[in-house]
Amino acid sequence: MLSHIMVGVSDFSRAMAFYKPVLGALGIQFRFLDDERPWAGWQSTPDPRPLFLVGRPFNQQAHHSGNGQMFAFLASSRQQVDQVHALALACGGTCEGKPGLRPEYHANYYGAYFRDPDGNKLCVAYHHAE
């Protein structure tokens, strides 16, 4: 369904210091880095798409985070949700919801919410009983 997701950032170096460890902890494969543009991408597996991209907005205008927009990544366990949330906060993110069950979504939904240093809202979720 998706080709790619692009997340705008205002400080590319700061964004890389956040996203490389957070996405690495989820096992998401780093694909490229272009400091000239600047932008970077990670790819899905086993297929190379969708891509997750971060970079300066294409129009070179200031980045603004949106209200109601969020990107959620799949975790392989509840423990991974906990670990990635803690890592995100240690890398400059801010908490938007501690890890835990959220039965209002479904009985086994275990998720955590945080914002990157630019205010983009992210989630890590696990959907199975443990």
Give the number of helices.
2
Termini separation: 29 Å
Shape: globular
Low-confidence stretches: none
Largest sheet: 4 strands, mixed
Total strands: the figure is 8
* Helix proportion range: 10-25%
| Strands ordered across the widest β-sheet | 1-4-3-2
Write the element-wise H/E pattern from the N-terminal end onward: EHEEEEHEEE
Task: Note the beta-strand portion.
Answer: 35-45%
Whole-number mean pLDDT: 94
Rg, rounded, reads 15 Å
Alpha-beta classification: alpha/beta
Quick structural gist:
The chain is of the alpha/beta class. The chain is 21% helix and 35% strand. Helix 1 (12-25) runs antiparallel to helix 2.
Report what the structure shows.
The chain is built from two helices and eight strands, in the order βαββββαβββ. It is of the alpha/beta class and 130 residues long. It is globular, with a radius of gyration of 15 Å. 25% of the residues are buried. The model has no long low-confidence stretch (mean pLDDT 94).
